[in-house]
Write a structure and sequence with these properties.
- This protein is an alpha+beta fold.
- It is about 40% helix and about 20% strand.
- It has 13 helices and 11 strands.
- The chain is globular, with a radius of gyration of 23 Å.
């Protein structure tokens, strides 16, 4: 889906249409914490994008306003509304497709190999786009390719309202001129690693042998070697298995106050346990705590239990043991204030 959260807000509130819309944390006139969840395409013209600190998004909006452009409209998320819309769209996709993998609330993969023809696949996707727009008044962008890797990258090529087709014979050439960041799994650190070696686009990466890529990026090098050649044998998974459940909270002010931090830790643990029960899991074996300091340095620590645990008290106890070193010299020798904490449970039973 195209700028899904913001698009739903524009659809539901006519006065927003044509304006730059940002869904996320409260900017509080530039002093807000948290990040942008979704920015529509008008807001992206200002440099506002997903995961940008909300305070920076506010500054970009103010700069645009000084240039005579409309200020961005900042909205808090309405997840219930987005979930309802997503479920209806998924039902439209499932109506004529054999295998559907829901990747997230606004993204899905579906298998059209039974059509035995790119032409028939294109027609079906055009019909699907038209049906989604007719019934939901929302646009989406679809990529058609020989595997999940190519289809995913193709879906981003002509947003919004795009349809990009890459046949198997063209897959390798399609990837070559793209930035290496377009390859799933290449994040900022990996990108910097390769850019320091003069590697900017996918074609540059193909100078390395499989062994050389493994030497540079470890075991993942072999997978990367295949991906940059358009190869991907990852299957579609009809039933998405939940592997972890987590919650986090950004504080309104950076703090090292133990009473406040431990109170918020307890509340986060309650929310995690509630979600675990809601998702029909009985217990967890691994607890993870994440801490982000005021300078945005982020650290995570985890512990795997011998026996599964299932109670709030057990999760709070494990989370507390993992968090406490961040409040003193053991994990925080410089006494940095804390901006965010998170709790996650894994190895669910």
């Amino acid at each position: 889906m195209d700028a899904f959260f913001a698009a739903v807000e524009e659809r539901d509130h006519e006065w927003l249409r044509g304006l730059p819309v940002v869904v996320g944390a409260d900017p509080q006139n530039g002093w807000g914490r948290g990040v942008v969840s979704t920015a529509n395409y008008k807001a992206r013209e200002y440099g506002i994008r997903s995961a940008l600190p909300i305070s920076q998004a506010w500054r970009f909006s103010e700069e645009a306003k000084k240039r005579g452009r409309p200020a961005a409209i900042f909205l808090g998320p309405n997840f219930e509304r987005y979930e309802e819309t997503s479920l209806r769209i998924i039902s439209l996709i499932r109506a004529n497709k054999r295998i559907v993998e829901e990747a997230s609330i606004d993204e899905a993969y579906f298998d059209l190999s039974h059509l035995n023809s790119y032409e028939r696949a294109i027609k079906l996707c055009k019909d699907l786009k038209a049906e989604i727009f007719e019934k939901e008044k929302l646009t989406c962008s679809i990529g058609i390719g020989p595997n999940k890797l190519i289809a995913k990258i193709a879906s981003d090529m002509q947003k919004p309202d795009g349809l990009t087709v890459v046949e198997e014979k063209d897959a390798e050439a399609f990837l070559e001129p793209l930035s290496i960041r377009k390859i799933p799994g290449v994040g900022p650190k990996t990108e910097l690693l390769f850019r320091n070696r003069g590697i900017n686009v996918v074609k540059d990466l193909k100078r390395f042998s499989c062994q050389e890529l493994e030497d540079i990026s470890g075991k993942w090098g072999r997978e990367l070697y295949e991906k940059i050649r358009g190869h991907d044998d990852t299957p579609l998974e009809e039933d998405h298995e939940i592997k972890s459940i987590g919650e986090q909270e950004t504080f309104s002010e950076d703090t090292l106050g133990p009473n406040f931090i431990l109170e918020r830790l307890s509340e986060i643990c309650r929310r995690v346990l509630a979600r675990m029960v809601q998702d029909e899991f009985a217990a967890f074996r691994t607890a993870v705590v994440t801490v982000r300091f005021a300078d945005f340095e982020t650290k995570s620590r985890s512990r795997t239990l011998v026996q599964p645990a299932r109670t709030f008290e057990a999760l709070r106890f494990e989370a507390l043991k993992l968090l406490m070193p961040f409040l003193d010299h053991r994990e925080n020798p410089r006494g940095k204030r804390i901006r965010l904490i998170g709790v996650r449970v894994e190895k669910l039973v």
